[in-house]
């Protein structure tokens, strides 16, 4: 009896969070998710990106892509382990991740590599961190294309299987980050650890 009362008390904050979350429209998540991009544009126009603005733009966009990927991966474990339901926002988080990674690639192609296609082709083949980044992006492509209600209906159970590719894409994104820093730095390792932890949490969700 006492434990069920404790359970109820504990679930009150969660119910409150879920009630607040239900009031937030999905478009607001897209809007909030676009703010960092607007901030990058603002810093670019006002000269606030330091001595190497090209690298800074590239790095900020890559990191945002990884952060939104992590956000999307956190939705299921959050619901299973904490009861917080952000399922309505998962598609927005995934698409925001995709758009940031695409913008990151676009920055590399244009302002970093200056549209030197031959050089880019060589980099994709010869620089393992670029090869892995590219592989992650290629894996995200079918997910972005099928992130709509029509595809979910059309693909049925195969949709869920296809979207498991996001685990591989996120891990490759983090490995790409680890490889490019060359020395052992905590930040990229923490991203990979976060992704692996979120995946591990899916293996044993608590029975509720
Ligand atoms: C899921 C896909 C990807 C993710 C999550 C990702 C993420 C990142 C992150 C987090 C960084 C480092 C940011 C920092 O140091 O603050 C980075 C750097 C970089 N990424 Fe990606 N990336 C992805 C795909 C790609 C692709 C497709 C390319 C190009 C083909 C690419 C090229 C680069 C380059 C050139 C850098 C900077 C390297 C340097 O400092 O010289 N990335 N990326």
Give the helices and strands, then pairings:
Layout: H1 2-23, H2 26-46, H3 53-82, H4 90-112, H5 117-126, H6 128-145, H7 149-155, H8 157-163, H9 165-181, H10 186-203
Protoporphyrin IX containing FE binds at residues 55, 58-59, 62-63, 65-66, 101, 104-105, 108, 130, 133-134, 136-137, 140, 169, 173, 176-177, 180.
Please provide a written account of the structure:
It is a single chain. The chain is mostly helical and 208 residues long. The chain has a single domain (2-203), classed as Four Helix Bundle (Hemerythrin (Met), subunit A), CATH 1.20.120. It contains ten helices and no strands. The protein has helices at 2-23, 26-46, 53-82, 90-112, 117-126, 128-145, 149-155, 157-163, 165-181, 186-203. Helix 2 runs antiparallel to helix 3 (53-82) and helix 2 (26-46) packs parallel to helix 4 (90-112). The chain is globular, with a radius of gyration of 19 Å. The two termini are 17 Å apart. Bound molecules: protoporphyrin IX containing FE. Protoporphyrin IX containing FE is lined by residues 55, 58-59, 62-63, 65-66, 101, 104-105, 108, 130, 133-134, 136-137, 140, 169, 173, 176-177, 180. Protoporphyrin IX containing FE binds at residues 55, 58-59, 62-63, 65-66, 101, 104-105, 108, 130, 133-134, 136-137, 140, 169, 173, 176-177, 180.
């Amino acid at each position: 009896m006492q434990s069920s009362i404790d359970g109820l008390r504990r679930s009150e904050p969660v119910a409150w969070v879920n009630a607040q979350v239900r009031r937030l429209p999905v478009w607001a998540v897209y809007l909030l998710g676009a703010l960092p991009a607007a901030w990058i544009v603002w810093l670019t126009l006002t000269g606030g990106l330091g001595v190497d603005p090209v690298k800074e733009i590239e790095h900020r966009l890559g990191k945002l892509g990884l952060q939104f990927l992590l956000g999307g991966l956190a939705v299921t474990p959050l619901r299973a382990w904490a009861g917080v339901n952000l399922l309505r926002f998962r598609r927005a988080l995934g698409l925001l991740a995709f758009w940031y990674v695409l913008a990151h690639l676009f920055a590399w192609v244009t302002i970093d590599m200056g549209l030197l296609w031959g050089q880019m082709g060589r980099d994709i083949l010869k620089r393992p961190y670029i090869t892995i980044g590219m592989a992650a992006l290629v894996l995200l492509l079918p997910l972005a294309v099928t992130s709509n209600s029509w595809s979910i209906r059309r693909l049925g159970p195969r949709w869920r299987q296809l979207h498991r590719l996001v685990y591989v894409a996120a891990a490759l994104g983090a490995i790409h980050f680890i490889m490019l820093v060359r020395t052992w730095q905590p930040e990229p390792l923490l991203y990979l650890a976060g992704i692996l932890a979120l995946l591990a949490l899916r293996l044993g969700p608590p029975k509720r």
